[in-house]
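Exercise 3.2. Students should predict the tertiary structure of the chain below and write it as structure tokens, then compare their answer with the key that follows.

Predict this chain's 3D structure.
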Amino acid sequence: MKKPPFLLFIMLLLSSFVSVIAINTLRAEASIHSPNVVTKELVLNLHYTDSGWYTDGGAHTLGNANYLVGKCGTLYCSDNTTIFRNFFVFDLAFVPGTILTATLVAENPDSGFESNQSSETWTIYEVSTPIDTLVNSTSSVAIYDDLGSGMVFGSTQITADDNGELVTVALNNDALSELNSAIGQKFAVGGAITTLEDNDQVEWAFANTNDASFVRRLVVTIEIEASDFVFVPFMIRD
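Answer key:
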């Protein structure tokens, strides 16, 4: 039996309405997992891969990890003008995120500090010398100069109270910028006593640090992004 045109129109309209409801219902019940970025902070202890010193005459002994810094004076050196600057090398190959803070930590032995002054300032500098050259050279005044010049990364006061203690230097924003640029490779810092007097007296720190067990580390706080998937429903708008 043939249906009147008006009735067909009503049926088609109802069918379309039901289809729209069905489609919107499916959309409302559907979901996606959209990435919600969560930042987390982690603290890493990066142990040294190399350390040592250069004298103002350019001397450096391969394999000697002693990190003496300062002036030995006539009490310990026949040449009382000998001045030592130290260095530390760290591997940033496995640092997984942005470095937010960094602290250099070095152990000062029981008899590590000696000076005619009550305190000495240990200043940490950038190192522009390539790492392989720094570690493998046996004589270079240029490297000695490099260890106590350029950008200052931080400083601290060392006294006799620091004998047998860990000495820490909080590194500044210039250091953080250089550290982040060096992620994935090795990174070095130099150190110098910047309060030396012009006399023949002993002024040094970190003496007798030949033992590999002495602490030398870079403590860094890093920020990483962790992708956390969150259930987010479709929003249905009129």
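Discussion points: The helical segments are 5-29, 73-76, 131-136, 141-146, 173-181. Confidence is low (pLDDT under 50) at residues 6-34, 228-238.
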